[in-house]
Design brief:
- This protein starts with a strand and ends with a helix.
- By secondary structure, the chain is an alpha+beta fold.
- The mean pLDDT is about 95.
- It contains eight helices and 18 strands.
- Helix 1 (about 40-50) packs across helix 3, helix 3 packs across helix 8 (about 335-360) and helix 6 (about 230-240) runs antiparallel to helix 8 (about 335-360).
- It binds flavin mononucleotide.
C-alpha cells in the first residue's frame, strides 16, 4: 500500500513530516542527460518559502535543497541527470513543536488531526505531521525537475480571487504577478487585497482564495484516455494539494450556465495547417487529450483552519472542549499554493509527455 507516490513514468515519492528533521522527494523515471543544478530547483522553492511577506506564516524556513543522488557531471563537466533516482532533501530548520503540545490530544477543526487518528491510530501531531502543507515544498522541488523535461512548456500561476474579491480579467498581466507578494495579475486588485488581508490577519482570522494555473506550449496529443485523461490527472493532482476544495478546467463550473453554441470552441484553418480555435472553454483539453491550446486550471483553496478565535471541538477521549490554534499561520494559504499548483501542473505534464512518447513515439 503506497500512496505517497504519484505519476507513472515520471514518478514522484515525497516523504517527511512538518517537524521531523527533513522532508524530501525521490523522483524515479527522469530521463538522463538533462542539465540540472540545485539553484534551478531553489528558485522555485524560494517562491513558496514561508516568511517572505506579512501575508504568509512567519515560520523561518530557508528551504535549502540538497541533491543527494541522480545527478552527475557529464563529459563536458556539466551536472546532468543520470537516469537514476533523483533524491532531493530539504531540512526543517524552524520547528516550534511546543506550540503544538495542546493538540496532541485535541482535534483542530478543519485539520486532519481526527482523520489521521481515526485511520492510523497514531500520528505525529507536531505541526500537523505528514498532513502539514510543509510537504508541498517537496512537490515544488519535483516540479522544478519536471519543468526541465518539458522545457518548451511555459507554466505560470496567479491568484485570481481572495475572499470575495476577484481580479478584473481585462487587466490580467502575467508581468504583474512577479511584482507583488500575492501573485496577483491585476495591479488594481493588489492594494485592495493587501488592505483586506491586513484586516484578516490583524483579527486573527483567515480567508480562502482561487488560484489559476496556465500551461502554454503543450502540443496537441498529450493525455491517456480513458483512465489517464489529462484533465482527470490534473484535477487529481491539484485536488491533492492541502486545503484545495474545488478544481475546474477551462470554463469549469461556469460551463453549466452556457449553451452549446456559447461553449463550442469553434475552429478555423490555422496558418500552420492545424486548427485555430476561436475560444478556449475546454481549457485546452478535449477527450482527455491536449488540443494545443493553453491548458487552464483553477482551484479553490479554503481559508486557513488555524485561527485565533476559539472553536469548539473534542479530544481523543471524546471530551468536548475548545481550541485556539497557536503557532504561526498564513492568513490566506491560497497565496503560497500558487507555486504548488504550478508544480503539480508541471509534474502531470512531464509524466504525460513521457507517456505519450512511450506509446506514440
Ligand atoms: C502552501 C500551504 C500552506 C498551508 N499552511 C497552513 C497553515 O499555516 N495553517 C493551516 O491551518 N493550514 C495550512 N494549510 C492547509 C492545511 O495543510 C490543510 O488544510 C490541512 O492539512 C487539512 O487538509 P485539507 O484541508 O486538504 O483537508 C496550508 C496549505 C497550503 C497549500
Amino acid at each position: 500500500m503506497s500512496h505517497n507516490s504519484f505519476g507513472h513514468l515520471f514518478r514522484v515519492t515525497t516523504f517527511g513530516e512538518s517537524h521531523g528533521p527533513a522532508i524530501g522527494v525521490v523522483i524515479d523515471g527522469c530521463p538522463p542527460r538533462i542539465p540540472l543544478r540545485a539553484e534551478e530547483i531553489q528558485a522555485f522553492l524560494d517562491k513558496r518559502r514561508p516568511g517572505q511577506s506579512r501575508f504568509t506564516t512567519q515560520r523561518r524556513e530557508p528551504d535549502a535543497v540538497k541533491i543527494l543522488s541522480g545527478v552527475f557531471a557529464d563529459d563536458a563537466g556539466q551536472d546532468v541527470t543520470t537516469g537514476t533516482p533523483i533524491a532531493l532533501l530539504i531540512e526543517n530548520a524552524d520547528q516550534r513543536s511546543k506550540d503544538y503540545a495542546d493538540i496532541a490530544d485535541t482535534y483542530r477543526p478543519g485539520h486532519a488531526d481526527y482523520t489521521y487518528d481515526a485511520k492510523y491510530g497514531v500520528r505525529d501531531w507536531r505541526g500537523g505531521g505528514r498532513s502539514s502543507a510543509r510537504e508541498t515544498a517537496a512537490r515544488v522541488a519535483a516540479g522544478a525537475v519536471a519543468r526541465k523535461i518539458i522545457a518548451g512548456v511555459c507554466i505560470r500561476g496567479a491568484l485570481v480571487q481572495v475572499g470575495p474579491y476577484k481580479i478584473n480579467r481585462a487587466r490580467f498581466d502575467w508581468r504583474e504577478v512577479e511584482r507583488n507578494a500575492l501573485f496577483c495579475p491585476d495591479a488594481h486588485s493588489t492594494p485592495r487585497w493587501e488592505d483586506y488581508l491586513d484586516g484578516v490577519r490583524k483579527s486573527g482570522s483567515s480567508i480562502g482564495a482561487v488560484v489559476e494555473v496556465v500551461a502554454e506550449g503543450v502540443p496537441a496529443g498529450w493525455g491517456a484516455p480513458v483512465y489517464g485523461k489529462l484533465d482527470a490527472d490534473l484535477a487529481g493532482a491539484l485536488m491533492s494539494i492541502n486545503a484545495v476544495k474545488g478544481v475546474e478546467i477551462g470554463a469549469g463550473f461556469a460551463a453549466a450556465e452556457l449553451s452549446g453554441e456559447g461553449n463550442a470552441d469553434e475552429m478555423r484553418a490555422g496558418a500552420d495547417g492545424k486548427p485555430a480555435f476561436l475560444s478556449n472553454h475546454a481549457g485546452g483539453i478535449l477527450g482527455g487529450i491536449s488540443t494545443g491550446q493553453p491548458i487552464v486550471a483553477r482551484f479553490a483553496v479554503k481559508p486557513t483552519s488555524s485561527i485565533l478565535t476559539p472553536r469548539r471541538t473534542v479530544d481523543r477521549h471524546g471530551n468536548e472542549t475548545e481550541i485556539v490554534t497557536k503557532g504561526r499561520h498564513d492568513p490566506c494559504v491560497g497565496i503560497r499554493a500558487v507555486p504548488v499548483g504550478e508544480a503539480m501542473m508541471a509534474i502531470v505534464l512531464a509524466d504525460h509527455f513521457l507517456r505519450h512518447r512511450g506509446q506514440v513515439g
